[in-house]
Amino acid sequence: AAWPPQLICMLPLLSLAGSGAQHVVTQPPSESGSLGQTVRLSCSISGGYSISSNGVSWFQQSPGNPPRYLLYYVSDSSTGRGSGVPDRFSGSASGSTGYLTISGLQAEDDADYYCLTWDTVAQGERFP
Question: Rounded to an integer, what distance in angstroms lies between the CA atom of residue 104 and that of residue 33?
């Protein structure tokens, strides 16, 4: 039976074993900017993870609210935003690092941002 993609990380500095390799995800503790400016958040994955093969998704969580899906990015031709997410949120990547760029910063952008990555080839236990 086919297994769904294997979750590697959803929070900064979370490490799980996946497909025989250990992936460690690192996000800077904080970024800051002024209203109207552009900021770029990063999500670096060690252990040979390739964003161009597997992709990265981004979520936003404001205090007191559930996480909001922003976008996924695999390549410039394979990307998409969640419903109602403005185009000032965009994704990009270089090697094993994914980026979320927020242009024209607004007050409501003050939030926590999380990256989500996954393996397209997952291994699972076989059940009878």
Answer: 10
Which of 64, 66, 63, 48 has the alpha carbon at shortest distance from 117? Answer: 48
- Give the chain's domain count: 1
Residue 124 lies in a domain: no
Concatenate the DSSP letters of all residues of 16-41 into one string.
EEETTEEEEEE--S-----TT--EEE
Q: Is 113 within a domain?
A: yes
Specify the amino acid at residue 59. F
Is residue 127 in a domain? Answer: no
Q: For residue 43, what pLDDT is reported?
A: 87
Encode pLDDT of 93-127 as tens digits.
Answer: 988 889 999 999 999 999 999 988 876 544 445 44
Residue 56 inside a domain? The answer is yes
pLDDT at 48: 74
Enclosing domain of residue 98: 6-29+36-119
Return the SS3 of 95: coil
pLDDT digits (tens, 9 = 90+) for 37-71: 999 999 888 777 777 777 889 999 988 999 999 99
Q: If we measure between CA atoms, which residue out of 103, 102, 98 comes closest to residue 26?
A: 98
